[in-house]
Amino acid sequence: MDRNHVISAKDLSRADIETVLDRATEIKRDPPCRERHVDDLLALCFFEPSTRTHMSFETAIKRLGGDALDMGPVEASSATKGESLADTVRVVEGYADALVLRHPSEGAAMMASEFVDVPLINAGDGAGQHPTQTLLDLYTMREAAGGLTDLTVGIMGDLKYGRTVHSLAYALTKFDARQHFVSPESLSLPRSVRYDLHESGARLKEHTDLDAVLAELDVLYVTRIQRERFPDENEYRQVAGEYRIDAATLEQARDDCVVMHPLPRVDEIAPDVDATEHANYFAQAHNGVPVRMALLDLLLDGGER
After folding, report:
1. Does residue 182 surpass a pLDDT of 70?
2. Is 149 annotated in the active site?
3. Which of 53, 132, 152, 164 is catalytic?
């Protein structure tokens, strides 16, 4: 890798992605010595709630031998006093060797990266991008489906506000995957995302009914309807619970179809799916550790690997 910051999946080449995934495979097979990054500190700046991303980054740096500095809840930070994000990251970079930023405003990570010299990793910026989630998603697909070439992937749920969807779609295009997007019309892909995907040569189709494509899929990537992103509560109520799968739904799927979800789930995947061979979302969450270890290892090495 030859760049300091990880802001968008659009900025990662196929070679970049494969470098991270290959390193994650090495780490999973043969964990590195804990002395490797013993003096490195990772600052966690989360302006939105997080469980998996926050904890897996903290786990990743500690398993590499480093440590994490946590900004803590927004309510206890100087943001409540009116401090700008630019000033916050400029201060924090003086304490750490790399920053992980989650923020509710789309574009926040890009803006913040202009004010720091240490590596900055976007851990989610509103309805924008979530590139490290995409890396662990691709890693999970590669492990579960046996590779990333010639895949047919269905992405269902909130395609309008889902930053994991936008990042994943850009990345899958680099592997020439066939992509089927399933959602209510009110939550279809934003026009800007659709335009970018077409410009990059994506092979995509849009549907309102999962039954139309389920039997073709190697991977079904389910997302929740994100209540917190809706400007209008009535709009949310109209679509809440509309796109849901259970074990009976998956009787139409291929035996080797992999079901994934970035989590947390609400009611879009019924608990009876957990016991099927399709379920892969908990393994997907666990893969966040080796993938983020790999990314931090590469960034903190200055990309030399």
Report:
1. yes
2. no
3. 53
